[in-house]
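User: Second chain of the day. Same drill as before.
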Amino acid sequence: MRPPIRGLFHARKRSVMYNDSDRIIEFPALKQAQEALDEKRKALATVFSEAGPDYDMSKVKSLQGDSTAKVEEIRKMNDEIIERKKKLDELQIVGRAAAASKQDEEAAERGDGAKGGGRDTERKGGRRLSLGESFAESQAFKGYKPGSGVGPSAHLDISLKTLMETPVGWDSEDVRTGRLELMPMRPSVHVASYFPSTTTGMSAVVYMEETTYTNAAAETFEANQADSQGAYPESALALTERQEPVRKIATFLPVTDEQFEDEPRAKGYVENRLPFMIQQRLDSQLLVGNGTAPNLRGTENVVGINTQALGGDSIPDAIYKAARKIRDTGFAEPSVCFIAPSKWEGVRLLKTADGQYIWGHPSMVGPFTIWGIPVVETTAVTATKAVLGDYTNFAELAMRRGIDVQVSNSHSDYFVKGKLAIRADMRCAALHYRPLAFAAVTGL
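Assistant: Same format as last time:
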């Protein structure tokens, strides 16, 4: 008996021995495909070995270029491995078919109907036997004697592969779950919720600002006809009309009729996401809008607010100095401080010289305040700035109209193409009544 072959492949004379039920045929192309795959895998393994556990691309010497170029080359190598593995799988299928064909030929030459390794699967009239026919012709049936107890056993090689494999049979049925994973987005309530909200029926919010306040009040002598020491000192007041126009924030989304007809959740999904887009844009405009039509004027661009450069200070020190300016010049108390998460991280991780966290141990939730001022982490603020101020008393979000969502097929050629235009918009004005009640810390 031929000794068993270890493994699937056996090399001899630069060819491949394909083992199927102790039947061996030579298949050179299979070995070449395997060697090509192994070579590419080894090259990729070398790259990761050079990079180390930290995946430091600067340590990789087997590839040229900067980190970006090396990562791109790794991606290409991986794609090539996938392609070579696919080719190897195809050749293995061919190898199995060739082995089966070889065994059938040998069985036909012997004329005994036996198929390699003592298996009892036979052919009759050029076709493969059915399950019943195979059993009737097997040693298990022929050798069984009634009353003798356990009879001989036989292996029936009944293959359904060519009938039921995925390419010619059924694909598996996959049922989509009800989960809808949304894109990561900045929450929309972080900024707007700190602006007191009112309503307006006008196209602009007009108000008066006291721009001159000269207080000459002083102690005065009793009137004396001989001199002017009894004259009252003259003070001065002046008012200037200010206004902030109502601006519109809007967007629309094209959707086909079929989306709403075939997917019950599509309508609710769109009608929720569109207002969120509007709210998110408002969030940004309230802090960084430049005031040039059609933009709102955000806190950072309000003329006359206090500024405090970071300079050589720490972020907590600079924020305190900005708050002190608000108190000194604006005679107001900051109600909130907006800062980017990347900058608040540096504050939250501040440590003493002996390694103690100043803003609380990592196991604690930690305070979201600084110098008693509530802190809101948001990417709506400019990353190099922190904005703080008395929004409670000196800011306002005047709503001309809340978010309105409408659907129509009258846009462009949407009617004849079976499409819908879903639009959402809002109109509002952002007001900062006392600029000195706000401040921006710059240079973070």
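The mean pLDDT is 81.

User: Great, on to the next one.
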